[in-house]
Amino acid sequence: MLIPFxxxxxxxxxxxxxxxxxxxxxLLPVLILLPVYLLLVWLTFRGDQLRPGSYSIFGFTLSFxxxxxxxxxxxxxxxxxxxxxxxAFLIRSxxxxxxxxxxxxxxxxxxGALVTLLSPGNYGRHAVQDYPPPPDPxxxxxxxxSFFLSFIGDILAGPGWLALIGVFTLGYLGWMVKNGRIITLxxxxxxxxxxxWLSFIPGTFVAQVPIPARSQFIPTIWLVxxxxxxxxxxxxxxxxxxxxxxxxxxxxxxxxxxxxLILISYNMVDPIVEYAQDWDERHRxxxxxxxxxxxxxxxxxxxxxxxxxxxxxxxxxxxx
Length: 320
Hints:
Layout: H1 2-10, H2 14-19, H3 23-26, H4 28-46, H5 52-69, H6 71-91, H7 96-118, H8 120-129, H9 137-157, H10 160-172, H11 182-199, H12 201-207, H13 217-233, H14 240-266, H15 269-288, H16 307-319
C-alpha cells in the first residue's frame, strides 16, 4: 500500500496524473503490472520449481502489455529485459530454462516497442503538431540528462527524499533476501537510474522537451519501486539493534513525513470537487439554452481546457 501511495504523492503533477482522461488506460497499468513482472523475474532467477512454458508466456505477455501502455515505459522495460537476458547468460549460464524465460521477456518488450513505434497515431500526431527534427546524439544525451536531473531534483527538493529513505528502509526490513551484496545494490541503483533516464527519451527525441508532467508518473514508478528493491537486496547488518533502529526510523517517517504527504494529497479534493460541480453546471446550461460556453476554473493549467473544442461539441449536439 505504501509504494503506490508514494508514487501518487511524489509524481510531479498529481492533478493530471489522477484525473487525466487516459490515466486509467496508459499510466495505472504500469503501476499495477510492474510488481507482478518483478515477482516473476525473482521467481525465474531463483530457479527452483520452474515452469518454463508458463513463465515464458506470462513474461512475454507482461512485457508486451507494459511496453504498449505508454511510450514513456517502452524503452526502460526494453533495456531492463536486455539486462536480464545478459544476466541469465552470465550468472545462470547452466540453466537453459532461465535463458528461455528471460528471452521471452525480451521478445515481449521488442514486440511492444514495435507496436508503439509503428503506431499510425504517433506519426499523425507528429505531423499535426509540427515537431522539430530530432537532435544529434550528443545533444540528445545532454538534453535528456538535463531533464533527468531536473526530475530527480524536483522529487528530492520536498519531502521526497525522506519518502525514498522510508521505502528503502521498508525494503531492507523485508524477507526476500537474507544476505544481500553491495554489487547487487549497485546494479539495482544503476538500473533504476537508467530506466528513469530512458523515460525522458521520447520527449527529447521527438520535441526536445521533457515528457509532460502527467507522464512523469512512470519514471516516478521506476524510482520508488527501484528504491524499494534496493532495500530488498542490500547487505544485512546482523544486529538486532540496527534492525530496531531502522524500524524506528521507518515508523517515525510514517508518523510525520507520510502524514504530511497525506495532507498535501487531501488538499487536492476540494479543487477537484469544485471543478466537477462547475463542469456539471456549465453542461446543464449548454443543454438547456443557447448560451456560449465560458471558461471555468480548473486545478491545472487552463490551456488544457480547449474551449474551442467544447464550443464545437455543443454546436454539433444542438444541430443533432
